[in-house]
Write a structure and sequence with these properties.
With about 425 residues, the chain is mainly alpha-helical. It is built from 18 helices and eight strands. It has a single domain, classed as Glycosyltransferase, CATH 1.50.10. The strands form three sheets. A four-stranded antiparallel beta sheet has the order 3-4-5-6. It has a two-stranded antiparallel ribbon with strand order 1-2. It has a two-stranded antiparallel sheet with strand order 7-8. Bound molecules: (2R)-2-(alpha-D-glucopyranosyloxy)-3-hydroxypropanoic acid. GO terms for molecular function: Glc3Man9GlcNAc2 oligosaccharide glucosidase activity.
Length: about 425
């Protein structure tokens, strides 16, 4: 018998991780629904079952708060509340939402959802139209984007801000070391990490990081999830979140056109967000978009791959500079194909610790899209080929060493399988 193809194996992972209404990122380590994971999952799932991909996004938006926020975790009541820390008892979302089911976190994650919704629609327009997929989702996506532009413009500059490293999706990126160092950690004995039951401590954030994550999340919860910047010891204007919102607004223009709404406001949002990114964050000297600390004004993390992901924004006027950074000594993208999550030449670069160096498949997918968007077809092909080869060799790992391709973190990780499946189509 012939071995199953890469595509068949990726499909197998998505089927195994499906929980009836949504997909868990990884069975043991992350046994609930995560926000941006679901968007990436939908991009792959649409090739397996367009209906399931639609459900994935609908179930996430079913947990949306009335203020428009889409929580970063939607807890699965069928999974033990102790399976993941911090669980539902920590976040106490019902105190704010008044709803006990579903229990959620109160943080957010990068807004890839409109882009995923549009791509999901395109995979099977007939089923989507029959189910009223886009007309039902559109007002929810608008409320989500409004939450980000109104409540999360923490610096008053038009950029989108985050109040916790978990919101960046790149939890322990060295970019956050500076602002995090000001946060008094909760002592490690006061909480029990569940991630270390399933993953090696050398590949995860440290206990000190976790103590600070817990402090920030508890303070946010205790403020009733208030978004006033002075309430937050960690407040950062984030290029990844802002760029993905711009790309999402571009998708919203397409969605609006499809359902007979006015695409104009969405196009203007793309223009506004692009201008804010370039005027406020772009650094010509380093050819990247560093994040910015709202409290000190300091530029953070010149080395984060988040600074080159704005390639996903259509019509970005500084794309050539980002391409030079991507292919230069700090990322060596043309040579490696795999996108390091942090500057290879920085002393904090680490081949195997989470977001401090390893290559992630969702970031690779976004870069492929951004490179194609700006005409770098050859480089996009190089990245695609490297991602496929890495998955072929290492399996659908959560992340891989960008230099050797060795796999790390969770196995059978959903978004890895999903974006690989999409890249195969
Ligand atoms: C905290 C689920 C999530 C991803 C994030 C990734 C990791 C969580 C964790 O896993 O974060 O949200 O427990 O470490 O950093 O990007 O969405 O896959």
């Amino acid at each position: 018998m012939r071995a199953p193809t890469l595509g068949a194996r990726a499909t197998g992972v998505l089927l195994a991780n499906w929980r009836g209404q949504s997909t868990v990122p990884a069975a043991d380590l992350y046994p609930h629904q995560w926000s941006w994971d679901s968007a990436f999952v939908a991009l792959g799932l649409r090739h397996v079952s367009a209906r399931r991909a639609q459900r994935e996004l609908e179930s996430l938006f079913g947990a949306q708060w009335t203020d428009g926020r889409v929580p970063h975790i939607v807890f699965d009541p069928a999974s033990s509340p102790r399976a993941y820390f911090p669980g539902p008892d920590f976040w106490r979302s019902a105190d704010v939402t008044g709803r006990h089911r579903p229990a959620t976190s109160g943080l957010v994650q990068p807004p890839v959802h409109a882009l995923a919704a549009w791509e999901t629609f395109r995979a099977d327009p007939a089923t989507a139209r029959r189910r009223g997929f886009l007309p039902r989702l559109y007002p929810r996506l608008r409320a989500w984007h409004r939450y980000l532009t109104e409540r999360r413009d923490l610096g008053g500059t038009g950029l989108v801000g985050i109040v916790h490293p978990w919101e960046s999706g790149m939890d322990n990126s060295p970019a956050w070391d500076g602002p995090l160092s000001r946060v008094p950690p909760v002592p490690a004995r006061e909480f029990r990490r569940r991630d270390l039951d399933h993953a090696s401590a050398t590949e995860r954030p440290t206990d000190l990081d976790y103590g600070r994550y817990v402090r920030l999340a508890a303070d946010y919860r205790d403020s009733g999830y208030s978004d006033r910047p002075e309430r937050h010891s960690f407040a950062v204007e984030d290029p990844l979140t802002t760029a993905l919102l711009a790309a999402a607004e571009d998708a919203m223009a397409a969605i609006a056109t499809e359902i007979g709404a006015d695409p104009g406001p969405h196009r203007r949002e793309v223009d506004r967000l692009r201008a804010a990114l370039v005027d406020e964050l772009f650094d010509p000297a380093t050819g990247t978009f560093p994040a910015r600390d709202v409290h000190t004004g300091a530029a953070l993390g010149y080395g984060s791959v988040a600074g080159i992901v704005p390639l996903v924004v259509p019509g970005l006027p500084v794309a050539d500079a980002l391409l030079a950074t991507a292919t230069g000594p700090r990322f060596r993208l043309a040579e490696l194909g795999l996108p390091a999550s942090f500057d290879l030449t920085d002393e904090r670069f680490d081949t195997s610790r989470y977001w401090r160096g390893p290559a992630w498949f969702n970031i690779g997918w976004l870069l492929c899209r951004g490179l194609r968007e700006h005409g770098a077809i050859g480089l996009a092909g190089t990245v695609r080929g490297a991602l496929l080869r890495a998955a072929e060799r290492a399996g659908f790992r959560e992340y891989v060493d960008p230099l050797s391709g060795q796999g790390h973190g969770a196995k059978d990780f959903s978004w890895t399988a999903a974006v690989i499946l999409d890249l195969l189509h």
